[in-house]
Model the fold of this input.
Amino acid sequence: MKKTILATSILAVALGVHAQGTILFQDSKSASTLEIKIYAPQTDVPSVETTGNSTSDYPAGSTVYSGGLIGGTSSGVGPYFYTDGSDYTAELYAAPGDNSTATLTPVTQYTSTFYTAPSTAAGYFKAVTPVNDPGIPNTPSATQGSATAQLAVWYNGGGTYSTYALAVAAGVPAGESPAFNIDGLGGYNDNGTITPDTSPLMTNMKSFSLAIIPVPEPSTIALGVIGATSFLFRRRNK
Done:
């Protein structure tokens, strides 16, 4: 399965220090504004991500998830402890402008883990409100700014997998939302005042499930090359 944001995660750039467009990094606000959840892999086809809102989301959809919700407790059963919210990381990837899916990079201040209590918070990551939020790189502050965004979620293994790319490479549960646009970014006013504009919710984001993508085994040709190389090495060193 192609991962839209995987390649760019390796080429992440440093965040700017000037005022840039900000968002409210949360996937739950109220039953009438935003209710988006993250699910464990589907039980029937765990290697395939599913995306789309369910009947309990806002806005409501018709997607059916069979894998259960991520988080909601401080424990779980192995090997991936889906109900232990501290074992799962959520991070925003973004780029300036609408529909800029080719240049998505991680926005590190918008990183969180999932709730461990109460159980009713299962499926939601902890809201983050960074102090002096530097915003999304290269986006204008205040209401004229727009960005393309995507949410990445992965099993962090208690800190073993610190990035989405590492989790995908290891074949542990990971997934991403469909890319979505955020318009009318927040941030400090451009007229020199220090009153921040209201930052927008990620209202265009959709619910999704994680997936377990097996790490490919070496091909027969690759194994043959390795074997031949080893054979020649042994011969040269006799």
